[in-house]
């Protein structure tokens, strides 16, 4: 390349010759290609992992089942004088449903149901008036004394559970159910021959499609009978938790972040606090559960049970309430909310602060009117991610004392509660196989809930950032 | 010292009688302010931590004049400018010694709220920095936060007046509700000037206001400055000596001096009427600089 060799190499001579450069360029391009392929491969692995997760959940949430009913719904309807061709259990009126319960349920179970929640405002079905007055005036009256009467859907679920008593004896996954339904029937029949279902005969078994994830599933309260168990209580519990968590974590977190970024002068103390916030973000969630149990449930019991807000009996007899759990989840998300809000605030150019201050605004006026609107989309993004994380948390809720089995909907911050992840966790530990399908369906519900919350928050955020422009 | 107190001050009149900065205790034996001077610095030194960025600056800025601060990079001219309305207080490590008098009151005296100082001594920055809001809100905000009591119609008038004052009205009158970011760089800078004059300041500080602009936009801002000096006193920092020569009435030349420990401290070399400084400077350093021998 060089025309005339210089006596001494100059700095320019250390650059490669034309041929060397072409060779180098080829190697650099190949390396870039390999790296791109590597990243693509990693992306594929991530997508595959997520797809597998979704596949497993959906696969377990739908599919063929073999059901044996103790009493066929058609027979029940016909027994009441309706045409079984046109009438289903859902078409029966309230009195008929209660009548069915009265006729088919033992008096002990009936009394228990009535004490849990009564059937009629004005009369009792299973209890007699004297006993009722007595137990309601006792020190610990059952919930039926104060709660309103059951509604139609509730009683229909009871009839399904107590009168029809469907028993799913075997279930099949979605994909094999679609590809090879006969294999499932053959499997169940083989099971009968092998004596796996000694209580039933083979001709009692009905094969039907079952969507474990269904509107009924979403709307029904929890139950020990998998066929009629639902997640309404858990969904409401999770929604209440989100509300309390947001109400706690967002003002506290954003306020702390604004102070640290906009007002705090650099000092040893402030950098100590900053370091601790960063460390707290890495503390395992179970430790927040311990904190919640020790402080919120035990020490602050008068507050978390609602006792200090009323002169009468406390809304809850202990601190294991939605309020305790929500604040625990709020504390859990707080470091992430603070850190992301700080990052969002730091990303606002200093020139805006100077512009505001130079007009004679106070620091707070500048922050409120100029800095926060610009930082808001960033603050919201971090908050959304943190809250979404909290919705799926299980460990702290177990410690704070989410109820393992509860059929009454939560009505406020002082209610006992359960939440979707708790429900899923419990169902997976039950022996009956159907609960695994229920757990899968509940997982699907949890995912959908999360997606809905995220989507709503993102829409909200985008509207906010458009307005700020 | 000079820790800011973020008190929400009682509202100030934005109208004609010029608000005087609250009377702090006058330092005993302070020389009387020259009646013609809006602002004066007296033996002002500015430190960043232990580093003395500017030493012993004594300058007076006359009413309805444009005073230019020129000098090589790092000579502290922007630092001096920012100390005139206590914007340096925003930098945690910055510290000012000496006195800065505004109408005879030391703005660094105890009990003077820097918010109040900035409200009467406005500022335009090097890079246009409109708020990410509408053109209208960019201008109206300064009035609102300072307690402007006028109705919506009064605010409309104020916005129009400020935009006319900044020679921007004809270009934006049909798009007041569009974002300030939709304007070109030169328009944005004039929007920032309009924003500054909308609060009816007394003095406007300009920190290299044209350095991010093209020559045509620069020319418009310079014409605007000459208009503005009828109503305001202007102090401008510029890198561009021609600009200083074109617009300013008096020019201060700053230079960097190495001190015994090797620290680079800015010092005021010469402060004279612009024509004199550019034609027959008193100091050798000034002459070297303006003839392009260094800097």
Notable characteristics:
heterodimer; A: 469 residues; MetI-like fold; 3-stranded antiparallel sheet; 3 strands; flat; B: 295 residues; Rossmann fold; 10-stranded mixed sheet; 10 strands
What does this structure look like?
The complex is a heterodimer of chains A (469) and B (295). Chain A is built from 19 helices and three strands. A three-stranded antiparallel β-sheet of chain A has the order 2-1-3. In chain A, helix 14 packs across helix 16 (363-391). The radius of gyration of chain A is 31 Å and the shape is flat. Chain A folds into three domains: 16-62; 63-219, no CATH class; 232-468, Orthogonal Bundle (MetI-like fold). Chain A has 469 residues and is mainly alpha-helical. With 295 residues, chain B is an alpha/beta fold. Chain B has one domain (37-290): P-loop containing nucleotide triphosphate hydrolases (Rossmann fold). Helix content of chain B is 31%, strand content 25%. Chain B contains ten helices and ten strands. Chain B has a ten-stranded mixed β-sheet, sandwiched between helices. In chain B, helix 3 packs across helix 4, helix 3 (135-145) runs parallel beside helix 6 and helix 6 runs parallel beside helix 7 (215-228). Chains A and B meet through helix 15 and helix 16 of A and helix 2, helix 3 and helix 6 of B.
């Amino acid at each position: 390349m060089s025309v005339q060799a210089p006596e001494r190499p100059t700095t320019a001579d250390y650059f490669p010759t034309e041929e060397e450069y072409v060779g180098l360029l080829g190697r650099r391009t190949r390396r870039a290609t390999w790296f791109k392929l590597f990243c693509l491969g990693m992306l594929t692995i991530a997508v595959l992992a997520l797809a597998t997760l979704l596949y497993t959940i959906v696969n377990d949430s739908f599919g063929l089942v073999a059901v044996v009913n103790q009493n066929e719904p058609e027979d029940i309807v016909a027994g009441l004088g309706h045409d079984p061709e046109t009438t289903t259990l859902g078409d029966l009126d309230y009195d008929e449903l209660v009548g069915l319960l009265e006729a088919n349920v033992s008096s002990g179970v009936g009394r228990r149901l009535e004490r849990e929640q009564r059937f009629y405002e004005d009369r009792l079905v299973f209890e007699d008036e004297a006993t009722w007055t007595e137990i309601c005036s006792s020190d610990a009256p059952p919930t039926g004394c104060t709660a309103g009467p059951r509604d139609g859907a509730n009683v229909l679920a009871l009839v399904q559970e107590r009168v029809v008593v469907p028993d799913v004896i075997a279930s099949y996954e979605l994909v094999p159910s679609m590809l090879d339904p006969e294999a499932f029937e053959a499997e169940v029949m083989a099971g009968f021959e092998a004596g796996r279902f000694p209580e039933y005969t083979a001709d009692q078994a009905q094969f039907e499609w079952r969507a474990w994830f269904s509107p009924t599933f979403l709307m029904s309260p929890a139950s020990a009978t998998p066929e009629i168990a639902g997640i309404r209580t858990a969904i409401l519990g999770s929604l209440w938790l989100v509300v309390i968590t947001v109400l706690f974590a967002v003002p506290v977190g954003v306020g702390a972040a604004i102070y640290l970024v906009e007002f705090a002068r650099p000092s040893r103390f402030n950098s100590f606090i900053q370091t601790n916030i960063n460390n707290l973000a890495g503390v395992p969630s179970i430790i927040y559960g311990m904190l919640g149990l020790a402080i919120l449930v035990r020490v602050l019991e008068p507050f978390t049970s609602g006792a200090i807000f009323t002169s009468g009996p406390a809304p809850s007899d202990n601190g294991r309430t939605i309020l305790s759990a929500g604040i625990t989840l709020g504390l859990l998300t707080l470091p992430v909310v603070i850190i992301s809000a700080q990052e969002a605030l730091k990303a606002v150019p200093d020139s805006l602060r100077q512009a505001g201050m130079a007009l004679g605004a106070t620091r707070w006026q500048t922050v409120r009117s100029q800095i926060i609107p610009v930082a808001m989309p960033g603050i919201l993004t971090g908050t959304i991610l943190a809250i979404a994380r909290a919705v799926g948390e299980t460990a702290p809720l177990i410690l704070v004392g989410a109820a393992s089995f509860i059929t009454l909907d939560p009505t406020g911050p002082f209610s006992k509660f359960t939440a979707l992840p708790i429900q899923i966790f419990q169902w997976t530990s039950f022996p009956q196989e159907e609960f695994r399908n229920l757990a899968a369906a509940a997982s699907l519900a949890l995912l959908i809930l999360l997606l809905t919350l995220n989507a709503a928050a993102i829409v909200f955020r985008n509207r906010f950032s458009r307005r700020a422009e | 010292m000079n820790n800011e107190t973020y008190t929400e001050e009682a509202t100030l009149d934005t109208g004609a009688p010029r608000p005087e900065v609250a009377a702090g205790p006058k330092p005993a034996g302070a020389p009387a302010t020259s009646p013609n001077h809006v602002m004066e610095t007296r033996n002002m030194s500015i430190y960043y931590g232990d580093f003395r960025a500017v030493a012993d600056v004594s300058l007076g800025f006359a009413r309805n004049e444009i005073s230019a601060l020129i000098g090589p990079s790092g000579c502290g001219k922007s630092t001096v400018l920012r100390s005139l309305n206590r914007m340096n207080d925003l930098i945690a490590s910055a510290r000012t010694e000496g006195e800065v008098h505004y109408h005879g009151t030391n703005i660094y005296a105890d009990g003077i709220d820097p918010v109040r100082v900035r409200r009467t001594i406005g500022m335009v920055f090097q890079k246009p920095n409109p708020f990410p809001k509408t053109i209208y809100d960019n201008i109206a905000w300064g009035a609102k936060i300072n307690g402007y009591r006028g109705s919506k119609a009064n605010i409309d008038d104020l916005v129009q007046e400020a935009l006319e004052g900044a020679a921007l009205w004809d270009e934006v009158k049909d798009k007041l509700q569009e974002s300030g970011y939709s304007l070109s760089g030169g328009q944005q800078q004039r929007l920032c000037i309009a924003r500054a004059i909308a609060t009816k300041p007394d003095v406007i500080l300009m920190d290299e206001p044209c350095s991010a602009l093209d020559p045509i936009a620069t020319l418009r801002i310079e014409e605007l400055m000459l208009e503005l000096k009828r109503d305001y006193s202007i102090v401008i920092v510029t890198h561009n000596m021609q600009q200083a020569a074109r617009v300013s009435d008096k020019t201060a030349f700053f230079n960097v001096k190495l001190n015994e420990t090797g620290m680079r401290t800015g010092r005021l070399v010469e402060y004279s009427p612009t024509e004199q400084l550019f034609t027959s400077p008193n100091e050798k350093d000034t002459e070297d600089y303006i003839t392009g021998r260094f800097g």
